[in-house]
């Protein structure tokens, strides 16, 4: 009797599919994923193979933390770079968003397609919307709409191989994959915790990498207090520590604690306890200390030393583990971090400094090999803090982002437009045309109140009049993203590709100047 109940509880009587979130669903997902290596080996290399890619650009993370990100729903537009897949004439793309995307934005991307007319591409593009502007993650909106899921299925041609591409993969994305009966090019959500701040530190140590002094697997305020005291006792010169929630986004799960004033206190433990709230600076805007602590208790987190130095950089290395088990170093970046605490992702330079780009690649490969052994699939990034001491760079890995990130879409745009490759042994990117070296500067955070009220149509008009576009002939120029966030939030994303790092920055400076003049 008990067995019968268990089986009936794990299946949906109407569809025959497993109940969302059940063990049966997880098992079926693993079976779907087992089909993917064959698709990867036979369909991916063939540019004329009939295929459909379903793009679900959901930022499936903590809703309260995400709600602090200005214009967060428009971050779904960052994966519009995947429309470049339409350059393959037998490839269909289904793109699902919370709200409808203005046609002028879609046209902007399609006009960059090399060798394909906009008409031909549009025939193979399906745009679907939930018509829901709430801050709830997109994937939850989709799962609440069974008719929308059926429409996605209906738009996949019968003879096409199909897979999903997502920003990150949680149990919700897994549920949609099972309902659609297609695999995901991404990590099994059962392994999602490998990307937590706590587990990242453990994996780095497994790889023989030097992590900042710190303590992981913390959950309570008392844990935080004890960790702050311990770090200061171990390093009396320590001025700051970073408190991180295990599953933060763009620094918005972080807080910085200052030890200033503790020098004159007779008891460190009492001083930290009495001054915790006063001396802590939360990165996320409008996030209260009480709410931060609730998130910390629910998700867990770490406390580690705030690494200081001059010069000090924040590089990252992007890796990919393919369905056939190959570990690839895709790119390196020097990230620009801002905000009062210097913890918020602002933008990035590609590639990372020639002083250490190759070394970063080697370190990233160690992490990739370790994650491959644990069953990880797809793209991920490793972030570092790097400081120079006595003419030698020291690199401290600080987190694994087991998902796409802020440097994913700029690199994909460069790759789609130039058909080139990053050579990890040199730390440089070469185009396929003339073997030219290319660089870029990118940002998700070109922002000004002056920009508010500019519609997508206005931006495209300004870009055309002022020659702010990508030139396929020279393989240099400017691409915009987050265009839909401009009018309400005064916020815009850009990728500036140049033949030198200086040229890329010149493009960015030109954009700022033009927008200032136009506004």
What's the topology here?
Elements lengths: L1 H8 L13 H12 L1 H7 L8 E6 L6 H4 L24 E7 L5 H8 L7 H6 L1 E5 L8 H6 L2 H9 L6 E6 L4 H10 L16 H10 L7 E5 L2 H14 L5 E6 L8 E5 L9 H12 E3 L6 H11 L1 E5 L6 E10 L5 E12 L5 E7 L6 H17 L4 E12 L2 E10 L6 H11 L2 E3 L4 E3 L8 E9 L8 H10 L4 E2 L4 E6 L4 H4 L1 E8 L2 H18 L1
Parallel strand pairs: 1-2, 1-4, 2-3
Antiparallel strand pairs: 5-9, 6-7, 6-9, 7-8, 10-11, 10-13, 11-12, 12-17, 13-14, 15-16, 17-20, 18-19, 19-20
Helix pairs in contact: 2-9, 11-12
Outline the biggest β-sheet. Answer: 9 strands, antiparallel
- List low-pLDDT spans: 1-9
H/I helix tally: 18
Strand order of the largest sheet: 14-13-10-11-12-17-20-19-18
What is the straight-line distance between the termini? 71 Å
- How much helical structure, as a percent, in the residues? 25-40%
Beta content comes to 25-35%
The averaged pLDDT comes out at 92
| DSSP strand tally | 20
Rg calc: 23 Å
Q: Name the shape in a single word.
A: globular
Structural class: alpha+beta
What do these coordinates show?
There is one protein chain. The protein has helices spanning 2-9, 23-34, 36-42, 63-66, 103-110, 118-123, 138-143, 146-154, 171-180, 197-206, 221-234, 268-279, 289-299, 357-373, 408-418, 456-465, 486-489, 501-518, and strands at 51-56, 91-97, 125-129, 161-166, 214-218, 240-245, 254-258, 280-282, 301-305, 312-321, 327-338, 344-350, 378-389, 392-401, 421-423, 428-430, 439-447, 470-471, 476-481, 491-498. It has 519 residues and is α+β, with helices and mostly antiparallel strands. Among the domains are: 2-185, no CATH class; 213-305; 438-519, TATA-Binding Protein (2-Layer Sandwich). The chain has a nine-stranded antiparallel sheet with strand order 14-13-10-11-12-17-20-19-18, sandwiched between helices. The protein starts with a helix and ends with a helix. Residues 1-9 have low confidence and may be disordered.
